[in-house]
Amino acid sequence: MFKNLLITSFLGLLAIVLGAFGTHSLKEILTTEQLMSFETAVRYQMYHVFVLLFVNIYEGFSEKQKNRISYVFFLGILLFSGSIYLIQLTSVSAKSIWFVTPLGGLFFIIGWFLLMMIFVKKMNKN
């Protein structure tokens, strides 16, 4: 659990640093469309940091469930937000890694589905 919270804390810190970097340093470099894309990556990363904090401190989940959900969301952040950062901050072409961002989005969807299924099972037990 603490490993997941450590990774989550790092991802939260990174989202704040990248958000500030985008706001203060990239306005002169990126187009408005590119900056909006970068901000989307930061926003989705931070949304999922909040979810990860909840998952890992909620006592209603088993350690196995916490780990499974955390790894799925970690992959979503890495692939979704990470690919957008890579595209906007380097010379990597979106055409060359077009499949990575949607794959990250799919991991976000899977993570939310896992959460929903756990809550449905808990609801049916009561």
UniProtKB/TrEMBL annotation:
Keywords: Membrane, Transmembrane, Transmembrane helix
A cellular component annotation (GO) from this entry: plasma membrane
InterPro entries: DUF423
A Pfam family annotated for this UniProt entry: DUF423
Protein name as annotated: DUF423 domain-containing protein
Transmembrane segments: 41-58, 70-91, 97-120
Xref: PANTHER family: TRANSMEMBRANE PROTEIN 256 (PTHR43461:SF1)
Annotated membrane topology: Multi-pass membrane protein
Protein's cellular compartments: Membrane
Similarity comment text for this entry: Belongs to the UPF0382 family.
